[in-house]
User: What shape does this take?
Amino acid sequence: MGDVLVYTEPSGDPERLIAWARPLATAAGGDVVALVAGGEPGGDGLTGADVVLEISHPALSPYLPEAHQAALAAAIEARKPDVVLLENTTAGYDLAAAAAAQAGLPFVGYCVDLSVGDGEAESTSAVYGGQFLATVSTPLPAVFAVNSTAIHEVSGAPGRGEHVELPAPAKLDSLRTKFVEAVVPPDEGVDLTKAERIVCVGRGIGGAENIGIAEDLAAALGAELAGSRPVIDSGWLPKVRQVGKSGARVKPKLYLALGVSGAPEHVEGMQGAELIVAVNKDPSAAIFNVAHYGVVADLFDVADELTDALG
Amino acid sequence: MNIAVALRLMPNPGDELELDGADIDREYVEMVMNEFDDQALEEAVLIKEATGATVTAVGLRTDGIEQALRVAYARGADRVVIVDAGELDPYDSRAAALAFAQAFRELKPDLVLTGVQTPTDLFGQGAPYMAAALDWPQANVVVGVELVDGRVQVTQEYAGGRLAVLSLELPAIIGVQSASSPPRYVSMARLRQAMTEASTETLEVELPARTQASTIESLARPEQTAGAKMLEGDAEQLATQIAALLREQGALVS
Assistant: This one.
Protein backbone atom coordinates (compact mmCIF):
# COMPACT_ATOMS: atom_id res chain seq x y z
CA MET A 1 0.00 0.00 0.00
CA GLY A 2 0.98 3.61 -0.44
CA ASP A 3 2.88 2.97 -3.65
CA VAL A 4 2.95 5.36 -6.56
CA LEU A 5 2.98 3.48 -9.86
CA VAL A 6 4.51 5.49 -12.69
CA TYR A 7 3.81 4.41 -16.27
CA THR A 8 6.93 5.01 -18.36
CA GLU A 9 6.71 5.36 -22.13
CA PRO A 10 8.76 3.12 -24.45
CA SER A 11 10.58 6.00 -26.10
CA GLY A 12 9.97 8.60 -23.44
CA ASP A 13 12.10 10.13 -20.74
CA PRO A 14 10.67 8.85 -17.44
CA GLU A 15 13.10 10.72 -15.17
CA ARG A 16 10.99 13.82 -14.60
CA LEU A 17 7.75 11.99 -13.89
CA ILE A 18 9.54 9.59 -11.52
CA ALA A 19 11.05 12.57 -9.68
CA TRP A 20 7.60 14.18 -9.59
CA ALA A 21 6.23 10.99 -8.00
CA ARG A 22 8.77 10.94 -5.14
CA PRO A 23 7.08 13.42 -2.75
CA LEU A 24 3.77 11.63 -3.34
CA ALA A 25 5.27 8.26 -2.41
CA THR A 26 6.87 9.80 0.68
CA ALA A 27 3.52 11.30 1.73
CA ALA A 28 1.70 8.05 1.05
CA GLY A 29 4.37 5.99 2.83
CA GLY A 30 5.17 3.79 -0.16
CA ASP A 31 7.53 3.16 -3.03
CA VAL A 32 7.93 4.79 -6.39
CA VAL A 33 7.26 1.89 -8.76
CA ALA A 34 8.16 2.47 -12.42
CA LEU A 35 6.39 0.27 -14.96
CA VAL A 36 8.55 -0.54 -17.97
CA ALA A 37 6.40 -2.28 -20.55
CA GLY A 38 8.48 -3.61 -23.41
CA GLY A 39 10.87 -0.68 -23.38
CA GLU A 40 14.54 -0.47 -22.62
CA PRO A 41 14.71 -1.30 -18.91
CA GLY A 42 17.55 -0.14 -16.71
CA GLY A 43 18.21 3.20 -18.38
CA ASP A 44 19.43 6.22 -16.42
CA GLY A 45 15.94 7.65 -16.47
CA LEU A 46 14.78 4.97 -14.04
CA THR A 47 17.31 5.56 -11.24
CA GLY A 48 14.76 7.53 -9.22
CA ALA A 49 12.51 4.47 -8.85
CA ASP A 50 12.48 2.15 -5.82
CA VAL A 51 11.07 -0.67 -7.89
CA VAL A 52 11.32 -1.14 -11.63
CA LEU A 53 8.47 -3.37 -12.72
CA GLU A 54 9.24 -5.00 -16.05
CA ILE A 55 6.78 -6.67 -18.37
CA SER A 56 8.32 -8.16 -21.50
CA HIS A 57 6.43 -9.33 -24.56
CA PRO A 58 7.00 -8.79 -28.30
CA ALA A 59 3.61 -7.04 -28.62
CA LEU A 60 4.71 -4.23 -26.27
CA SER A 61 7.21 -2.73 -28.69
CA PRO A 62 6.63 -0.68 -30.77
CA TYR A 63 3.90 0.99 -28.72
CA LEU A 64 0.36 -0.33 -29.18
CA PRO A 65 -2.46 1.19 -27.10
CA GLU A 66 -4.20 -2.13 -26.51
CA ALA A 67 -1.00 -3.92 -25.45
CA HIS A 68 0.07 -1.19 -23.05
CA GLN A 69 -3.46 -0.98 -21.66
CA ALA A 70 -3.21 -4.68 -20.77
CA ALA A 71 0.27 -4.22 -19.23
CA LEU A 72 -0.81 -1.26 -17.11
CA ALA A 73 -3.92 -3.12 -15.96
CA ALA A 74 -1.74 -6.08 -14.94
CA ALA A 75 0.64 -3.80 -13.01
CA ILE A 76 -2.23 -2.10 -11.16
CA GLU A 77 -3.71 -5.50 -10.33
CA ALA A 78 -0.36 -6.84 -9.08
CA ARG A 79 0.82 -3.85 -7.02
CA LYS A 80 -2.48 -2.23 -5.95
CA PRO A 81 -0.87 1.22 -5.78
CA ASP A 82 -2.48 4.21 -4.08
CA VAL A 83 -1.61 6.49 -6.96
CA VAL A 84 -1.13 5.68 -10.65
CA LEU A 85 0.66 8.43 -12.57
CA LEU A 86 0.87 8.95 -16.31
CA GLU A 87 2.06 11.90 -18.34
CA ASN A 88 -0.61 13.50 -20.47
CA THR A 89 0.94 12.38 -23.76
CA THR A 90 -0.61 10.27 -26.52
CA ALA A 91 -0.10 7.18 -24.37
CA GLY A 92 -1.64 9.08 -21.47
CA TYR A 93 -4.77 9.71 -23.52
CA ASP A 94 -4.91 6.05 -24.57
CA LEU A 95 -4.24 4.49 -21.19
CA ALA A 96 -5.05 6.65 -18.17
CA ALA A 97 -8.85 6.81 -18.28
CA ALA A 98 -9.05 3.29 -19.72
CA ALA A 99 -6.92 1.87 -16.88
CA ALA A 100 -9.04 3.71 -14.30
CA ALA A 101 -12.26 2.36 -15.81
CA GLN A 102 -10.88 -1.19 -16.00
CA ALA A 103 -9.67 -1.13 -12.38
CA GLY A 104 -12.78 0.67 -11.12
CA LEU A 105 -10.70 3.62 -9.89
CA PRO A 106 -11.38 7.35 -10.12
CA PHE A 107 -9.40 9.34 -12.68
CA VAL A 108 -8.31 12.96 -12.81
CA GLY A 109 -6.55 14.36 -15.86
CA TYR A 110 -4.73 17.55 -16.93
CA CYS A 111 -3.16 17.76 -13.43
CA VAL A 112 -0.69 20.57 -12.80
CA ASP A 113 -0.43 19.85 -9.07
CA LEU A 114 -1.10 16.85 -6.85
CA SER A 115 -0.73 16.05 -3.16
CA VAL A 116 -1.88 13.07 -1.09
CA GLY A 117 -2.72 12.42 2.54
CA ASP A 118 -5.28 10.58 4.66
CA GLY A 119 -6.47 8.36 1.87
CA GLU A 120 -7.32 11.33 -0.28
CA ALA A 121 -5.68 13.30 -3.05
CA GLU A 122 -6.02 16.99 -3.70
CA SER A 123 -5.16 17.99 -7.23
CA THR A 124 -5.36 20.94 -9.57
CA SER A 125 -6.34 20.48 -13.20
CA ALA A 126 -6.19 22.91 -16.10
CA VAL A 127 -9.64 23.07 -17.71
CA TYR A 128 -11.38 25.18 -20.36
CA GLY A 129 -8.19 25.40 -22.43
CA GLY A 130 -6.16 26.62 -19.45
CA GLN A 131 -8.54 29.49 -18.65
CA PHE A 132 -9.41 27.98 -15.27
CA LEU A 133 -7.86 25.69 -12.67
CA ALA A 134 -10.13 23.18 -10.95
CA THR A 135 -9.20 22.08 -7.42
CA VAL A 136 -10.35 18.50 -7.02
CA SER A 137 -10.48 16.04 -4.13
CA THR A 138 -10.40 12.34 -4.91
CA PRO A 139 -10.48 9.27 -2.67
CA LEU A 140 -7.46 6.99 -3.14
CA PRO A 141 -6.56 4.75 -4.84
CA ALA A 142 -6.87 6.72 -8.08
CA VAL A 143 -5.27 7.37 -11.47
CA PHE A 144 -3.87 10.78 -12.44
CA ALA A 145 -2.58 12.14 -15.75
CA VAL A 146 -0.17 15.05 -15.38
CA ASN A 147 0.27 17.83 -17.93
CA SER A 148 3.79 17.86 -19.39
CA THR A 149 4.14 21.57 -18.55
CA ALA A 150 3.80 20.73 -14.84
CA ILE A 151 6.73 18.28 -14.75
CA HIS A 152 9.15 20.68 -16.37
CA GLU A 153 12.80 20.34 -15.26
CA VAL A 154 12.51 18.18 -12.18
CA SER A 155 15.18 15.75 -11.11
CA GLY A 156 15.32 13.72 -7.95
CA ALA A 157 17.37 11.51 -5.66
CA PRO A 158 18.04 7.90 -6.64
CA GLY A 159 15.62 5.20 -5.45
CA ARG A 160 16.35 1.62 -4.34
CA GLY A 161 16.40 0.37 -7.93
CA GLU A 162 14.99 -3.10 -7.20
CA HIS A 163 13.95 -4.99 -10.37
CA VAL A 164 10.80 -7.11 -10.48
CA GLU A 165 9.59 -9.11 -13.47
CA LEU A 166 5.85 -9.31 -13.91
CA PRO A 167 4.46 -12.09 -16.12
CA ALA A 168 3.07 -10.82 -19.41
CA PRO A 169 -0.74 -10.83 -19.35
CA ALA A 170 -2.35 -13.49 -21.60
CA LYS A 171 -4.24 -10.75 -23.44
CA LEU A 172 -1.02 -9.80 -25.22
CA ASP A 173 -1.27 -13.00 -27.27
CA SER A 174 -4.67 -12.10 -28.75
CA LEU A 175 -4.59 -8.41 -29.52
CA ARG A 176 -7.04 -6.82 -31.91
CA THR A 177 -4.64 -3.98 -32.72
CA LYS A 178 -1.62 -4.33 -35.04
CA PHE A 179 1.31 -2.03 -35.64
CA VAL A 180 1.56 -1.26 -39.37
CA GLU A 181 4.41 1.22 -39.75
CA ALA A 182 6.12 4.27 -38.36
CA VAL A 183 5.71 7.32 -40.57
CA VAL A 184 8.37 9.96 -40.97
CA PRO A 185 6.63 13.28 -41.60
CA PRO A 186 7.67 14.75 -44.96
CA ASP A 187 10.43 17.36 -44.88
CA GLU A 188 8.74 20.52 -46.08
CA GLY A 189 11.72 22.81 -45.69
CA VAL A 190 10.42 24.46 -42.51
CA ASP A 191 12.03 23.69 -39.16
CA LEU A 192 10.50 25.78 -36.42
CA THR A 193 12.75 24.15 -33.82
CA LYS A 194 15.72 25.94 -35.42
CA ALA A 195 14.03 29.33 -35.81
CA GLU A 196 15.48 32.20 -33.75
CA ARG A 197 12.31 34.25 -34.05
CA ILE A 198 8.74 33.06 -34.39
CA VAL A 199 5.51 34.95 -34.98
CA CYS A 200 2.71 32.62 -33.95
CA VAL A 201 -0.94 33.26 -34.78
CA GLY A 202 -3.85 31.76 -32.83
CA ARG A 203 -7.59 31.50 -33.28
CA GLY A 204 -7.78 35.30 -32.90
CA ILE A 205 -6.38 35.74 -36.42
CA GLY A 206 -9.92 34.90 -37.52
CA GLY A 207 -9.31 33.30 -40.91
CA ALA A 208 -6.91 32.41 -43.71
CA GLU A 209 -7.58 35.81 -45.31
CA ASN A 210 -5.84 37.53 -42.38
CA ILE A 211 -2.66 35.45 -42.36
CA GLY A 212 -0.94 38.01 -44.63
CA ILE A 213 -0.88 40.56 -41.79
CA ALA A 214 1.15 38.16 -39.65
CA GLU A 215 3.29 37.20 -42.64
CA ASP A 216 4.24 40.84 -43.17
CA LEU A 217 5.20 41.18 -39.52
CA ALA A 218 7.20 37.94 -39.61
CA ALA A 219 9.06 39.20 -42.70
CA ALA A 220 9.84 42.52 -40.96
CA LEU A 221 11.21 40.61 -37.95
CA GLY A 222 13.08 37.99 -39.96
CA ALA A 223 10.87 35.44 -38.17
CA GLU A 224 9.23 32.16 -39.11
CA LEU A 225 5.44 32.17 -39.16
CA ALA A 226 3.73 29.57 -36.97
CA GLY A 227 0.23 28.72 -35.80
CA SER A 228 -1.51 27.17 -32.81
CA ARG A 229 -3.67 24.05 -33.22
CA PRO A 230 -6.99 25.76 -34.14
CA VAL A 231 -5.20 27.65 -36.94
CA ILE A 232 -3.68 24.45 -38.34
CA ASP A 233 -6.85 22.36 -37.91
CA SER A 234 -8.84 25.03 -39.76
CA GLY A 235 -6.37 24.82 -42.66
CA TRP A 236 -5.21 28.44 -42.36
CA LEU A 237 -1.56 27.35 -42.12
CA PRO A 238 0.09 24.02 -43.00
CA LYS A 239 0.74 21.40 -40.31
CA VAL A 240 4.51 21.90 -40.57
CA ARG A 241 4.00 25.32 -38.98
CA GLN A 242 2.23 24.07 -35.86
CA VAL A 243 3.66 24.79 -32.40
CA GLY A 244 2.50 22.81 -29.36
CA LYS A 245 1.95 19.32 -28.03
CA SER A 246 0.84 18.27 -31.49
CA GLY A 247 3.56 20.03 -33.43
CA ALA A 248 6.96 21.56 -32.89
CA ARG A 249 8.48 22.23 -29.47
CA VAL A 250 10.36 25.48 -29.98
CA LYS A 251 12.94 27.55 -28.07
CA PRO A 252 13.46 30.72 -30.12
CA LYS A 253 14.99 33.97 -28.86
CA LEU A 254 11.70 35.71 -29.61
CA TYR A 255 8.17 34.31 -29.62
CA LEU A 256 5.51 36.80 -30.59
CA ALA A 257 2.04 35.35 -30.03
CA LEU A 258 -0.85 37.04 -31.84
CA GLY A 259 -4.36 36.03 -30.78
CA VAL A 260 -3.12 32.83 -29.11
CA SER A 261 -5.24 31.87 -26.07
CA GLY A 262 -2.46 29.89 -24.37
CA ALA A 263 -4.01 26.45 -23.92
CA PRO A 264 -1.73 24.06 -21.97
CA GLU A 265 -1.15 22.03 -25.16
CA HIS A 266 0.24 25.16 -26.83
CA VAL A 267 2.29 26.33 -23.85
CA GLU A 268 3.98 22.91 -23.76
CA GLY A 269 5.52 23.69 -27.14
CA MET A 270 6.78 27.23 -26.54
CA GLN A 271 7.36 27.94 -22.85
CA GLY A 272 11.11 27.55 -23.35
CA ALA A 273 11.29 30.66 -25.56
CA GLU A 274 13.68 33.33 -24.24
CA LEU A 275 11.39 36.28 -24.79
CA ILE A 276 7.64 35.83 -25.13
CA VAL A 277 5.46 38.77 -26.14
CA ALA A 278 1.71 38.15 -26.37
CA VAL A 279 -1.02 40.23 -27.97
CA ASN A 280 -4.59 39.22 -27.16
CA LYS A 281 -7.82 41.15 -26.83
CA ASP A 282 -8.92 39.04 -23.84
CA PRO A 283 -7.15 40.31 -20.67
CA SER A 284 -7.71 36.95 -18.95
CA ALA A 285 -6.13 34.89 -21.77
CA ALA A 286 -3.90 32.16 -20.30
CA ILE A 287 -1.06 33.16 -22.65
CA PHE A 288 -0.36 36.13 -20.33
CA ASN A 289 0.64 33.65 -17.59
CA VAL A 290 3.57 32.44 -19.65
CA ALA A 291 4.41 35.63 -21.60
CA HIS A 292 7.10 38.05 -20.40
CA TYR A 293 5.34 41.02 -21.94
CA GLY A 294 1.63 41.30 -22.63
CA VAL A 295 -0.54 43.61 -24.68
CA VAL A 296 -4.32 43.66 -24.41
CA ALA A 297 -5.32 45.00 -27.80
CA ASP A 298 -6.62 44.19 -31.25
CA LEU A 299 -3.88 42.11 -32.81
CA PHE A 300 -4.46 43.54 -36.29
CA ASP A 301 -3.86 47.13 -35.17
CA VAL A 302 -0.75 46.21 -33.22
CA ALA A 303 0.65 43.93 -35.95
CA ASP A 304 0.27 46.64 -38.61
CA GLU A 305 1.83 49.33 -36.43
CA LEU A 306 4.67 47.03 -35.38
CA THR A 307 5.43 46.07 -38.99
CA ASP A 308 5.65 49.81 -39.77
CA ALA A 309 7.77 50.53 -36.69
CA LEU A 310 10.28 47.84 -37.69
CA GLY A 311 10.31 48.73 -41.37
CA MET B 1 -20.37 0.04 -42.78
CA ASN B 2 -21.92 2.19 -40.10
CA ILE B 3 -19.90 4.94 -38.45
CA ALA B 4 -21.19 6.65 -35.34
CA VAL B 5 -19.84 10.01 -34.21
CA ALA B 6 -20.19 10.86 -30.52
CA LEU B 7 -20.79 14.60 -30.31
CA ARG B 8 -20.43 16.72 -27.19
CA LEU B 9 -20.69 20.44 -26.57
CA MET B 10 -18.24 23.08 -25.40
CA PRO B 11 -18.53 26.80 -24.68
CA ASN B 12 -18.03 28.83 -27.86
CA PRO B 13 -14.23 29.35 -27.90
CA GLY B 14 -14.75 33.03 -28.75
CA ASP B 15 -16.84 33.68 -25.61
CA GLU B 16 -15.29 35.06 -22.45
CA LEU B 17 -16.19 32.79 -19.56
CA GLU B 18 -17.14 34.00 -16.08
CA LEU B 19 -17.17 32.00 -12.87
CA ASP B 20 -20.21 31.10 -10.83
CA GLY B 21 -19.12 29.20 -7.71
CA ALA B 22 -17.34 25.97 -8.64
CA ASP B 23 -18.64 26.16 -12.22
CA ILE B 24 -18.69 28.63 -15.10
CA ASP B 25 -21.64 30.97 -15.38
CA ARG B 26 -23.68 29.15 -18.00
CA GLU B 27 -26.40 31.73 -18.46
CA TYR B 28 -24.89 33.67 -21.36
CA VAL B 29 -22.58 31.01 -22.74
CA GLU B 30 -23.31 29.65 -26.18
CA MET B 31 -22.66 25.91 -26.34
CA VAL B 32 -21.28 24.68 -29.66
CA MET B 33 -20.00 21.36 -30.99
CA ASN B 34 -16.79 20.33 -29.18
CA GLU B 35 -13.99 21.31 -31.56
CA PHE B 36 -12.36 17.85 -31.64
CA ASP B 37 -15.77 16.22 -32.22
CA ASP B 38 -16.09 18.59 -35.16
CA GLN B 39 -12.86 17.05 -36.52
CA ALA B 40 -14.19 13.53 -35.83
CA LEU B 41 -17.40 14.34 -37.71
CA GLU B 42 -15.43 15.63 -40.69
CA GLU B 43 -13.30 12.47 -40.77
CA ALA B 44 -16.45 10.33 -40.67
CA VAL B 45 -17.97 12.25 -43.59
CA LEU B 46 -14.70 11.93 -45.55
CA ILE B 47 -14.84 8.13 -45.03
CA LYS B 48 -18.48 8.15 -46.12
CA GLU B 49 -17.53 9.97 -49.32
CA ALA B 50 -14.69 7.54 -49.98
CA THR B 51 -16.51 4.28 -49.18
CA GLY B 52 -20.28 4.84 -49.07
CA ALA B 53 -20.45 4.21 -45.33
CA THR B 54 -23.35 5.70 -43.39
CA VAL B 55 -22.76 8.23 -40.64
CA THR B 56 -24.88 8.51 -37.49
CA ALA B 57 -24.37 11.59 -35.34
CA VAL B 58 -25.10 10.86 -31.68
CA GLY B 59 -25.41 13.37 -28.86
CA LEU B 60 -26.57 13.31 -25.25
CA ARG B 61 -29.74 15.24 -24.42
CA THR B 62 -28.60 18.63 -23.15
CA ASP B 63 -29.25 22.26 -24.07
CA GLY B 64 -27.83 23.01 -27.49
CA ILE B 65 -27.36 19.43 -28.69
CA GLU B 66 -30.16 19.65 -31.30
CA GLN B 67 -28.41 22.52 -33.04
CA ALA B 68 -25.09 20.61 -33.06
CA LEU B 69 -26.83 17.55 -34.50
CA ARG B 70 -28.47 19.66 -37.20
CA VAL B 71 -25.04 20.99 -38.14
CA ALA B 72 -23.85 17.37 -38.30
CA TYR B 73 -26.76 16.48 -40.60
CA ALA B 74 -26.06 19.46 -42.84
CA ARG B 75 -22.40 18.40 -42.99
CA GLY B 76 -23.27 14.90 -44.21
CA ALA B 77 -24.54 12.72 -41.36
CA ASP B 78 -27.31 10.37 -42.52
CA ARG B 79 -28.98 9.91 -39.16
CA VAL B 80 -29.13 11.87 -35.92
CA VAL B 81 -29.79 10.30 -32.53
CA ILE B 82 -30.30 12.00 -29.18
CA VAL B 83 -29.45 9.79 -26.21
CA ASP B 84 -31.54 10.60 -23.16
CA ALA B 85 -29.67 9.60 -20.02
CA GLY B 86 -31.48 12.04 -17.75
CA GLU B 87 -29.76 14.94 -16.00
CA LEU B 88 -25.94 14.61 -16.11
CA ASP B 89 -23.28 16.54 -14.23
CA PRO B 90 -21.48 18.49 -17.02
CA TYR B 91 -18.09 17.37 -15.66
CA ASP B 92 -19.00 13.69 -15.29
CA SER B 93 -17.37 12.52 -18.49
CA ARG B 94 -17.46 8.91 -17.28
CA ALA B 95 -21.26 8.98 -17.00
CA ALA B 96 -21.48 10.60 -20.43
CA ALA B 97 -19.22 7.91 -21.91
CA LEU B 98 -21.29 5.17 -20.30
CA ALA B 99 -24.44 6.72 -21.80
CA PHE B 100 -22.79 6.73 -25.24
CA ALA B 101 -21.60 3.15 -24.73
CA GLN B 102 -25.16 2.06 -23.85
CA ALA B 103 -26.41 3.74 -27.02
CA PHE B 104 -23.75 1.99 -29.12
CA ARG B 105 -24.82 -1.38 -27.73
CA GLU B 106 -28.18 -0.70 -29.38
CA LEU B 107 -27.06 1.18 -32.49
CA LYS B 108 -24.30 -1.39 -33.17
CA PRO B 109 -21.96 0.82 -35.24
CA ASP B 110 -18.87 -0.76 -36.82
CA LEU B 111 -16.75 2.22 -35.91
CA VAL B 112 -17.11 5.09 -33.44
CA LEU B 113 -15.25 8.37 -33.93
CA THR B 114 -15.19 11.08 -31.30
CA GLY B 115 -12.93 13.98 -30.37
CA VAL B 116 -9.76 13.20 -28.43
CA GLN B 117 -10.79 15.53 -25.60
CA THR B 118 -13.16 18.27 -24.47
CA PRO B 119 -12.35 21.40 -22.43
CA THR B 120 -14.09 19.82 -19.41
CA ASP B 121 -13.22 16.12 -19.48
CA LEU B 122 -10.80 16.29 -16.54
CA PHE B 123 -12.44 13.13 -15.16
CA GLY B 124 -11.55 11.14 -18.26
CA GLN B 125 -11.69 11.27 -22.03
CA GLY B 126 -14.69 9.79 -23.83
CA ALA B 127 -12.97 7.37 -26.22
CA PRO B 128 -11.02 5.32 -23.64
CA TYR B 129 -14.04 5.20 -21.32
CA MET B 130 -16.34 4.00 -24.10
CA ALA B 131 -13.72 1.49 -25.24
CA ALA B 132 -13.37 0.14 -21.69
CA ALA B 133 -17.15 -0.10 -21.27
CA LEU B 134 -17.62 -1.94 -24.57
CA ASP B 135 -14.30 -3.83 -24.52
CA TRP B 136 -13.47 -2.53 -28.00
CA PRO B 137 -9.96 -1.63 -29.16
CA GLN B 138 -9.17 2.08 -29.27
CA ALA B 139 -6.58 4.63 -30.31
CA ASN B 140 -6.36 8.32 -29.49
CA VAL B 141 -4.66 11.46 -30.79
CA VAL B 142 -5.46 10.22 -34.29
CA VAL B 143 -4.91 12.43 -37.33
CA GLY B 144 -6.23 10.16 -40.10
CA VAL B 145 -8.72 7.27 -40.34
CA GLU B 146 -9.19 4.84 -43.22
CA LEU B 147 -11.03 1.58 -43.77
CA VAL B 148 -8.66 -1.10 -45.06
CA ASP B 149 -9.58 -4.78 -45.57
CA GLY B 150 -12.43 -4.79 -43.07
CA ARG B 151 -10.35 -3.11 -40.38
CA VAL B 152 -9.78 0.50 -39.42
CA GLN B 153 -6.35 1.94 -40.07
CA VAL B 154 -5.42 5.04 -38.11
CA THR B 155 -2.48 7.42 -37.98
CA GLN B 156 -1.58 8.13 -34.36
CA GLU B 157 0.46 11.18 -33.47
CA TYR B 158 3.12 11.36 -30.74
CA ALA B 159 5.24 14.11 -29.23
CA GLY B 160 7.37 16.03 -31.69
CA GLY B 161 5.09 15.16 -34.61
CA ARG B 162 6.16 11.49 -34.84
CA LEU B 163 3.49 9.30 -36.43
CA ALA B 164 2.62 5.62 -36.60
CA VAL B 165 -0.02 3.71 -38.49
CA LEU B 166 -2.04 1.18 -36.48
CA SER B 167 -4.67 -1.27 -37.66
CA LEU B 168 -7.60 -2.10 -35.37
CA GLU B 169 -10.22 -4.81 -35.58
CA LEU B 170 -13.80 -3.54 -35.84
CA PRO B 171 -15.78 -2.47 -33.92
CA ALA B 172 -13.34 0.09 -32.58
CA ILE B 173 -13.35 3.55 -31.02
CA ILE B 174 -11.08 6.34 -32.21
CA GLY B 175 -10.29 9.59 -30.40
CA VAL B 176 -9.67 12.04 -33.23
CA GLN B 177 -7.24 14.93 -32.91
CA SER B 178 -7.68 16.32 -36.40
CA ALA B 179 -9.41 15.29 -39.61
CA SER B 180 -7.51 14.56 -42.84
CA SER B 181 -8.78 17.91 -44.14
CA PRO B 182 -10.30 20.92 -42.33
CA PRO B 183 -14.01 20.72 -41.41
CA ARG B 184 -16.17 21.90 -44.31
CA TYR B 185 -18.15 25.10 -44.27
CA VAL B 186 -21.93 24.79 -44.27
CA SER B 187 -24.03 27.61 -45.66
CA MET B 188 -26.97 29.06 -43.71
CA ALA B 189 -29.26 27.89 -46.52
CA ARG B 190 -28.03 24.31 -46.15
CA LEU B 191 -28.41 24.55 -42.37
CA ARG B 192 -31.99 25.80 -42.71
CA GLN B 193 -32.72 22.96 -45.13
CA ALA B 194 -31.24 20.49 -42.62
CA MET B 195 -33.57 21.83 -39.94
CA THR B 196 -36.60 20.73 -41.94
CA GLU B 197 -35.11 17.47 -43.29
CA ALA B 198 -33.40 15.97 -40.25
CA SER B 199 -35.63 13.73 -38.20
CA THR B 200 -34.14 13.16 -34.78
CA GLU B 201 -34.45 9.76 -33.13
CA THR B 202 -34.37 9.50 -29.34
CA LEU B 203 -32.86 6.65 -27.38
CA GLU B 204 -33.33 6.32 -23.63
CA VAL B 205 -30.57 4.76 -21.55
CA GLU B 206 -30.17 3.94 -17.87
CA LEU B 207 -27.00 4.78 -15.98
CA PRO B 208 -25.61 3.53 -12.66
CA ALA B 209 -26.46 5.92 -9.82
CA ARG B 210 -22.94 7.20 -9.17
CA THR B 211 -19.98 7.07 -11.51
CA GLN B 212 -17.71 9.80 -10.25
CA ALA B 213 -15.81 9.70 -6.99
CA SER B 214 -13.98 13.04 -7.37
CA THR B 215 -15.38 16.39 -6.32
CA ILE B 216 -14.55 19.77 -7.82
CA GLU B 217 -13.93 21.95 -4.75
CA SER B 218 -13.35 25.17 -6.63
CA LEU B 219 -12.75 26.67 -10.04
CA ALA B 220 -10.52 29.73 -10.36
CA ARG B 221 -8.46 31.69 -12.84
CA PRO B 222 -4.75 30.90 -12.66
CA GLU B 223 -2.91 33.44 -10.53
CA GLN B 224 -1.07 35.90 -12.72
CA THR B 225 1.64 36.68 -10.14
CA ALA B 226 4.40 35.34 -12.36
CA GLY B 227 2.61 36.67 -15.42
CA ALA B 228 3.48 39.16 -18.08
CA LYS B 229 4.49 42.78 -17.66
CA MET B 230 1.57 44.48 -19.36
CA LEU B 231 2.20 47.31 -21.81
CA GLU B 232 -0.31 50.15 -22.13
CA GLY B 233 -1.23 52.66 -24.81
CA ASP B 234 -2.85 52.90 -28.23
CA ALA B 235 -1.77 50.60 -31.07
CA GLU B 236 0.98 52.92 -32.28
CA GLN B 237 2.39 53.46 -28.77
CA LEU B 238 2.23 49.73 -28.11
CA ALA B 239 4.09 48.98 -31.34
CA THR B 240 6.77 51.52 -30.43
CA GLN B 241 7.19 49.96 -26.97
CA ILE B 242 7.36 46.43 -28.39
CA ALA B 243 9.91 47.45 -31.03
CA ALA B 244 12.00 49.16 -28.33
CA LEU B 245 11.97 46.20 -25.99
CA LEU B 246 12.84 43.78 -28.80
CA ARG B 247 15.81 45.98 -29.59
CA GLU B 248 16.87 46.22 -25.91
CA GLN B 249 16.62 42.47 -25.44
CA GLY B 250 18.58 41.76 -28.59
CA ALA B 251 15.70 39.89 -30.14
CA LEU B 252 15.94 41.65 -33.52
CA VAL B 253 18.10 40.58 -36.44
CA SER B 254 21.37 42.43 -35.93
Notes: Residues 35-51 of chain B form the longest helix (17 residues). Chain B has a mean pLDDT of 94. The CA atoms of residues 233 and 239 of chain B lie 9 Å apart.
